[in-house]
Amino acid sequence: MKTLMTTLTLILLAGLATALAGDLPAQAQRIWAPAGDVIGNQNHLTATGMLNDDHGDAVKAGEELDIFGEYLGQGLFGWRHVMDNSHTLRARGLFDNYAGGGLAGDGMIASTSPGTYRATLSYHIHDLRYDRDAELRNPTFPTVMPPQLAITPELEWRRGQAEVSYHVSSALDLRVGADDMRREGRKSALTRRNPPGVQTVDSQAARFWLGGTTRLGALAADLELSTTTSENDRAYQSGHVYADERDRYSASLDAAYDLSPAWRVLANGRMSRLEHTGTESGISNPGDTDGDTDSAAYQLAVLGRLGKATTVRASARFDMHDTEASLLGVDGDAVQYAADRERDRQQYQVVIGNRSLPRTSLKLRYRYTSGESNEIIGIGGRPGYGLETASQSLDQESTRHDASLRVRTRLARHVKLTCSLRHSALEVDQDRTWDTDDDQPWFGVLGDHERDRTMWRLALQTRPSRRLPVDVGLRGFDQTFQRTGEEMAETQASMVGVFANANWLATDRLTVFAMVTYGSESYELTGVEPVGSFEAFNVDATTLRLSPGAMVQLTECLQLEGWYEGVFFEDTGDQSDSLNAIEADRDRLQVRARWQAMDRLAVTAGYARNELDENRWDDYIQHLWTLSAHTGF
Q1: Buried b (16+ CB within 10 A) or exposed e, 354-376
Q2: What is d(CA 208, CA 230) in angstroms, rounded to the nearest whole number?
């Protein structure tokens, strides 16, 4: 029924366009966007009102209504003014009350004087809502409601940022800035109890930076110094309270030097130190935390051209991290736990592009990464000082190879073929030792493992006629993950999909577009024993996505658009006599009409219908009605 309604809507749009044919300008192709999508340098203002109507499962609909609200509004504006001396003032903003009725959005004002200075001030406020259902994908949940929280956790983010840059001379620019971010509210805790846990959050962080850019002939460099201070307080329903303070000091340097018109050398380096202190209570071992982390990263790259057809990019990067952290007793007495972690990584990469073949471009990329980490955790003293009474260590070495090839060729005037192939191989060796009272390790590790991943894509871009571009293609993914230690286990994952996309400029006033994708995916885990009544999780699923639409210019002042999306998913990987296959269908329909009442005034009315249909408990339907007015000034 839903598909029939959509088809009739699109046929009606096409029929009206044919009936009102005339000498109107051709409509440019564009991606669908919600009402109020006018963005640009011109001065504009769009105000939108919305009515949200939810149906279906009472609990799910109530949760959606609690998050989004019933009556919604949105405002989008942009203002730009250029003075006679080229001094430019700009203001932009997008605000709404989508989350629970509170005002949220982003705003920015900027003042620029070419060749002298630039100042920007921005402010962001958003509400982040969390699902109150502890779903856990338990097999009984298709028939039994999952545990729920009485409230929907809400976390409010506020962030303000200001930066001023000044052009001192042709060789020097200076900048200074500050950033303040605050979070306050409640969020879902990682602990999955019945009902799931909730934690309260109250944190703030302030960052200040000073930087400069210089240009001396063929050399350009940028230096920035920054400091960040943050305070975080978290409390759980169980009475577990945690508070910490962090101070970070950072420095970065980027440089570029032109060896010749065809070759350039790039270099950058970053260093930082993080100092952390905190207190923890409401647990079996309360106390104070204390830790320091030093990190550094350096990179050197060369970019150049060999002849007229070959480009080369080569780079090397080195990363180092060193962390020492301790959990002290109450009032900072003896060490309870302590950790010492060191990580080093090297990465080498080369990218070669070539256009020597007629109508063909090739790009070959290879990257090699090797890493080494050492971690020691001790009780009663800091590792390395011989004071710990028990300890556990983990030494890890890893290597990774990434290679990819991309080919683009033009087979004919209106036919282009693109092929890409990527392969990644990861190998990790882990060596764990421990010296504990019960001769058992405190925590487990994955052990030695390997991962091989291959991805490929084949796409054909065609244009059968001047008004009809068509794209078709295939893509695939295959991965094997294997534990190679004493406990052997292996997972096999694969995906194959096809896609097609067409845009038909039927007349000067009618555009019809459609996209379809179909894919199958599988996931299988072997080599593990069941835990209780839970066996290995397997997937054998197919997904079909249809997305047709049309846009028609009825008259010089009236434009209609219609768009439908249907996603049909089925997973039979764990289907049995006691467990049905997972089926989930999603349907979305949007229709929009835009009336250009005057040269600087337009009114847009829209309707959207979103439906989630599962063979579980949380089916729901959402109707969203919108009415907006746009003016330019």
Answers
A1: beeeeeebbbebebebebebebb
A2: 12
The Cα–Cα gap between 551 and 549 comes to 7
Structure tokens belonging to residue 454: 């291959």
User: pLDDT tens digits, residue range 173-221?
Assistant: 999 999 999 999 988 775 655 566 788 999 999 999 999 999 999 999 9
Angle formed at CA 255 by CA 251 and CA 256, multiple of 5 degrees:
165
Please give the Cα distance from 578 to 23 (Å, whole number): 64
What's 391-431 look like in SS3? EEEEEEEEEEEEEEEEEEEEEECCEEEEEEEEEEEEEEEEE
Residues with Cβ within 8 Å of residue 566, at least 6 apart in sequence:
2, 3, 544, 545, 546, 547, 585, 586, 587, 588
Can you tell me the distance from the alpha carbon of 392 to that of 432, in angstroms, rounded to the nearest whole number? 7
Pairwise CA distance, residues 477 & 493, whole Å: 8
Which of 469, 489, 341, 473 has its CA nearest to residue 414? 469
H/E segment holding residue 7: helix 2-19
Contacts of 559 (CB under 8 A, 6+ apart): 551, 552, 553, 593, 594, 595, 596
Query: Is the separation of the CB atoms in 477 and 493 below 8 Å?
Result: yes
pTM above 0.85, yes or no: no
Phi, psi torsion values for 119, nearest 5 degrees: -130, 135
Residue 197 DSSP label:
P
Tens of pLDDT, residues 19-51: 333 333 333 333 334 433 445 567 888 899 988
b/e per residue, 580-604, with b = 16+ CB within 10 A? eebebbebbbbbbebebeeeeebeb
CA distance readout (Å), 436 to 323, 325, 439, 440: 23, 20, 5, 6
Distances (CA, A) of 541 to 190, 490, 497, 536, 566: 28, 20, 12, 16, 16
CB distance 227 to 248 below 8 Å: yes
Strands 620-632 and 468-483: unpaired
Distance CA 115, CA 176 (A): 17
| Residue whose structure tokens are 């982003």 | 106
CA dist 28 and 577 (Å) reads 53
Residue type, 319: D
Q: Which residues contact 576 (CB under 8 A, 6 or more apart)?
A: none
Q: Cβ–Cβ contacts within 10 Å for residue 563, how many?
A: 20
Write out pLDDT tens, residues 411-443: 998 999 999 999 999 999 999 888 888 888 888
Residue where the block lists tokens 């929009």: 592
Positions of E strands within 282-414: 287-306, 310-328, 335-354, 360-379, 390-412
510: left (phi over 0), alpha (psi -120 to 50) or beta: beta
**CA–CA gap between residue 618 and residue 58 (Å, rounded):** 9
Residue 137 — left, alpha, or beta (φ > 0 → left; ψ -120 to 50 → alpha)? left
Q: For 327-368, how does the pLDDT look when each residue is reduced to its tens digit (9 = 90+)?
A: 887 666 678 888 999 999 999 999 999 999 999 999 999 999
With contact defined as beta carbons under 8 Å apart, do 488 and 494 qualify?
Answer: no
Residue 100 backbone zone (phi > 0: left; psi -120 to 50: alpha; other: beta): left
The predicted model gives 535-547 an average pLDDT of: 89
Cα–Cα distance between 89 and 110 in angstroms, integer?
A: 6
Residue 552's closest CA among 38, 26, 33? 26
